[in-house]
Write a structure and sequence with these properties.
The protein is of the alpha+beta class. It is built from seven helices and 31 strands. The protein folds into five domains: about 45 residues, no CATH class; about 45 residues, no CATH class; about 100 residues, Beta Barrel (conserved putative lor/sdh protein from methanococcus maripaludis s2 fold); about 80 residues, Efflux pump adaptor protein, beta barrel domain (Elongation Factor Tu (Ef-tu), domain 3); about 110 residues, no CATH class. Helices cover about 20% and strands about 35% of the residues. The longest helix has 17 residues.
């Protein structure tokens, strides 16, 4: 037993002499052998290390206590284990603000005062923190001066809002334009009869409105002292052989409306005619009657109107936005009492009815046989040629005091309001005359929420100070 103990003691002493262990200095300057130093180092690596950070700004890290350079709060000690790693996505204020070598730095800024720019790195004059670089690829191409701000919305919010889009495409907008029409008399062929001399109606043949008359029919007879005097002058001049005076008297009678048949009878019989008959100058229907039997007339008083109903008018009410697609000479189909009749646009009135916001379109069509009656209703379908044009759903159009606009989807959660000029509207589709290109996407659902946010962002941009020159870092 004694020999075994002595043998073990010799082995230990020999290992110290022939295989000396490395010497490691500890923090106190004293040395320990390697087995004990390795255990100490392992234990030191496993021991937790104290770190100080800001509860409101976790990207701030310090080795010792102090205050947050952003908000001024006291730093809180955090114990980090050996497996704890720093999140590379969070900027570390202690690491400085060295720019990335492969990215172009536009300027330097203080995150707490982003509207102030600096031309080189350093400490912020506002907060005790490092300035951060702003890279060129972080800033999108600046929009035009009159462009609306671009909204950035994450995919989750877009889904919650129920945003739906559609593509701007060319569509056939040549759908027929319809209008409600009213049958009216043709004012171009209307005749107004009035007296040229004073007198009294003796006999009235056309005594009721609506009476149909034919050219040359007797309308009325007139007792007039002026006409009687002129007839006497005419007869006296002929009896005296004064041809020029007789012709002058005959011309005056003709100018006062006396028919050539009356003048021929006067010349043939050499006797004055009283009362003087007056005949219809055209065929048609008595539209209005202003006299009765025995009515006393002065020069210029109206007697009756004659309407020619062989060519009649249809006045159709057309939406204000559709008038631009119609022109004089275009064709249309008029439906009256189940019958379709061809018609042609004779004119478009230059005024708009305030109550209905419609314009009047006048059509002319053949009415031989007086099938259509003034005052009747008709349906008008205008023949508009097909016209492929850019169009979107009418739900995508937003209107304001400044005009029409849409919310454009730029992709990747980016949206922007854009002004457009609209055209034809029908069947839930609106023509886009300018402002959009084929293939772009517009928002058709939740566009009002996006429009409100865009207006808010635009207002904030106008209120925020503009920055033109970078400042010098202290």
């Amino acid at each position: 037993m004694k020999h075994v103990s002595a043998l073990l003691l010799g082995i230990v002493l020999g290992s110290q002499v022939f295989l000396p262990l490395p010497f490691v200095s500890n923090q106190n300057g004293t040395g320990i052998s390697a087995p004990w130093s390795l255990l100490a180092i392992a234990h030191a690596q496993e021991a937790p290390k104290s770190n100080y950070t800001c509860p409101m700004h976790p990207q701030i890290h310090r080795d010792g206590p102090g205050q947050c350079p952003i908000c001024g709060m006291e730093l809180v000690a955090v114990t980090a284990g050996p497996a704890q790693t720093h999140d590379p996505s969070m900027p570390d204020a202690t690491a400085g603000a060295a720019p990335h070598a492969s990215r172009k730095v536009l300027y330097w800024y203080d995150p707490m005062v982003p509207d102030k720019r600096f031309d080189k790195p350093g400490k912020s004059p506002f907060m005790d923190m490092e300035l951060q670089p702003k890279y060129a690829d972080d800033i999108a191409t600046p929009p035009p001066v009159d462009a609306k701000p671009v909204l950035h919305i994450d995919a989750g919010t877009v889904q919650k809002l129920g945003v739906r889009t559609e593509t701007v495409v060319r569509r056939d907008l040549g759908q027929p334009l319809r209008g409600a029409g009213l049958v009216v008399a043709n004012e171009r062929t209307r005749r107004m009869l009035s007296t040229q001399v004073e007198g009294r109606i003796k006999a009235l043949q056309a005594s009721t409105e609506g009476d149909r008359i034919t050219k040359g029919d007797l309308l009325y007879t007139l007792l007039s002292p002026d006409l009687a005097a002129l007839q006497s002058d005419y007869l006296a001049a002929r009896s005296a052989g004064l041809t020029q005076l007789a012709d002058a008297a005959a011309n005056r009678l003709s100018l006062l409306g006396v028919d050539s048949r009356v003048l021929a009878s006067l010349k043939a019989t050499q006797r004055a005619i009283a009362p003087v008959p007056f005949y219809a100058p055209a065929s048609g229907v008595v539209g209005k009657l202003f006299v009765r039997h025995g009515t006393t007339l002065k020069s210029g008083d109206p007697i009756l109107e004659i309407d020619d109903l062989d060519a009649i008018w249809i006045e159709a009410a057309v939406a204000e936005s559709d008038l631009a697609h119609l022109a004089r000479g275009d064709h249309a189909t008029v439906t009256v009492a189940g019958a379709d009749l061809p018609a042609t646009i004779d004119g478009i009135y230059p005024t708009i009815t305030d109550a209905t916001r419609t314009g009047r379109v006048r059509l002319i069509l053949d009415n031989t046989g007086a099938r259509l009656k003034p005052g009747g209703y008709a349906t008008v379908v205008f023949d508009v040629a097909p016209e492929p044009a850019l169009a979107v759903s009418s739900a995508a159009i937003l209107r304001s005091s400044t005009g029409s606009h849409v919310i454009l989807s730029l992709g990747n959660g980016q949206f922007q309001a854009r002004a457009v000029e609209t055209g034809v509207v029908g069947a839930g589709i609106t023509q886009i005359r300018s402002g959009l290109r084929e293939g772009e996407a517009v928002v058709t659902s939740a566009q009002f929420l996006l429009d409100s946010e865009s207006a808010l962002q635009e207002t904030l941009q106008k209120l925020s100070p503009s920055i033109t020159e970078p400042s010098r870092a202290p």
